[in-house]
């Protein structure tokens, strides 16, 4: 794997906590480690450091890096700034997370610089769940569609997302493929588990149910809190994350009755201690691309339950690990049985372990090979971890 001498440009407006940026930084570092010179455009530096990662910070005349005025300015100025950086730095390829950012790089496409767009989620669906302005959603959707159309490759994180985007935006099957997220499997032993519980002030006999998410409406954390409120046996629910829904969720938790306690930890990076301490991981999201949080829990060997949505079906191998995201009572029954029936708890653990196995591959290697292919540097697509084929079939990992 060698990208030595190749210059790559990426664009994302600023750092945000969560799996999206974590995976984005992973890509930038993989390309730099392979010898590429990685340039990025943002309004503030990312919290990453590498001798071959070069920031280009766009000056913004606003103190707030959000809102309608900011985005109007950002969308108007970044195409010109990307052209300036592209010409000055002699960029060979553009690699971005999201159709909006491939649209912003369109001046480079006019000079025949190839663009790879990694589609991490369905922006239209997220905007709908967050009840954003229909007019703004309409204009963003147009820009995203143009970005996908002008990309040389569109790489989604799930088969479901590939089918959704290819149908909606009429993306040719030869240029859309799937590269799912990966994990490094490192289950927690009993000694480490108890040590983590002591550090976090949790009792060794407590049954710990954990979730990890940005606290947005689509993550649907409310259903977990309401399920916990109906349990008869004491459990502790750890909600690891931060976001605009936190105050609302804290209010709901304070109004629930019963022996369940709910603890909001705020954002924790890394969240390894919390995952190591958990008896069960519950992921109630109403929408996902390919959940980094769920995969991270599987990587720690934590028994997992996930909402019954198509992307989670692609991760969890058994219907018994899924639940209706609109049914707190049904979720409560599953949690209650797992917390009281040791045999069932072990069954869920084994099914979760089996679910993890298809995601044990070298994601960095796959990303580098994809860039080599688009740049015409490599014809090798036989290795496990190679990029999606031009026909758009899922190669990494195999679809179920």
Spell out the key features of this protein.
16% strand, 400 residues, six-stranded parallel sheet, Rossmann fold, eight-stranded parallel sheet, alpha/beta, 2 domains
Topology:
Elements: E1 7-11, H1 19-33, E2 37-42, E3 53-57, H2 68-89, E4 93-97, H3 99-104, H4 106-110, E5 115-119, H5 123-129, H6 134-150, E6 153-156, H7 159-169, E7 176-179, H8 190-200, E8 208-212, H9 221-228, E9 236-240, H10 246-255, E10 261-266, H11 272-277, E11 280-283, H12 292-299, E12 304-307, H13 310-313, E13 322-323, H14 328-340, H15 342-356, H16 363-374, E14 394-396
Parallel strand pairs: 1-2, 1-4, 2-3, 4-5, 5-6, 6-7, 7-14, 8-9, 8-11, 9-10, 11-12, 12-13
Helix pairs in contact: 1-16, 5-6, 9-14, 14-15
């Amino acid at each position: 794997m060698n990208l030595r001498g190749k210059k790559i440009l990426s664009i994302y407006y600023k750092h945000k906590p969560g799996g999206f940026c974590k995976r984005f930084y992973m890509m930038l570092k993989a390309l730099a480690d392979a010898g590429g010179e990685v340039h990025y455009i943002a309004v503030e530096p990312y919290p990453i450091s590498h001798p071959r990662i070069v920031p280009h910070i766009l000056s913004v005349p606003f103190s707030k890096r959000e809102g309608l005025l900011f985005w109007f300015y950002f969308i108007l100025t970044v195409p010109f700034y990307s052209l300036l950086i592209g010409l000055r730095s002699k960029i060979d390829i553009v690699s971005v997370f999201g159709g909006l950012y491939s649209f912003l790089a369109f001046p480079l496409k006019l000079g025949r610089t190839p663009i790879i767009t990694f589609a991490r989620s369905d922006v239209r669906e997220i905007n709908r769940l967050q009840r954003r302005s229909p007019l703004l959603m309409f204009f963003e959707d147009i820009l995203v569609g143009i970005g996908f159309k002008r990309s040389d490759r569109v790489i989604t994180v799930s088969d479901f997302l590939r089918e959704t985007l290819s149908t909606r935006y009429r993306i040719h099957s030869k240029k859309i493929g799937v590269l799912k997220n990966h994990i490094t499997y490192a289950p927690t032993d009993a000694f480490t588990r108890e040590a983590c519980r002591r550090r976090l002030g949790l009792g060794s006999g407590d049954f710990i149910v954990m979730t990890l998410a940005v606290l947005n409406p689509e993550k649907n954390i409310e259903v977990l809190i309401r399920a916990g409120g109906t349990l008869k046996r004491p459990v502790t629910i750890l909600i690891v994350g931060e976001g605009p829904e936190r105050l609302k969720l804290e209010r709901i938790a304070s109004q629930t009755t019963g022996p369940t306690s709910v603890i909001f930890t705020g954002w924790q990076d890394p969240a390894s201690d919390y995952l190591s301490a958990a008896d069960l991981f519950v992921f109630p999201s109403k929408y996902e691309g390919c959940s980094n949080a769920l995969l991270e829990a599987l990587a720690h060997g934590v028994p997992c339950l996930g909402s019954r949505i198509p992307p989670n079906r692609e991760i969890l191998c058994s219907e018994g690990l899924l639940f209706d995201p609109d049914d707190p009572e049904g979720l409560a029954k599953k949690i209650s049985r797992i917390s009281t029936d040791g045999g069932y708890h072990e069954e869920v653990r084994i099914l979760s372990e089996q679910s993890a196995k298809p995601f044990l591959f070298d994601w960095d290697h796959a990303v580098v090979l994809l860039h080599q292919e688009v740049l015409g540097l490599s014809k090798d697509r036989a290795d496990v971890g190679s990029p999606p084929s031009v026909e758009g079939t899922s190669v990494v990992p195999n679809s179920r």
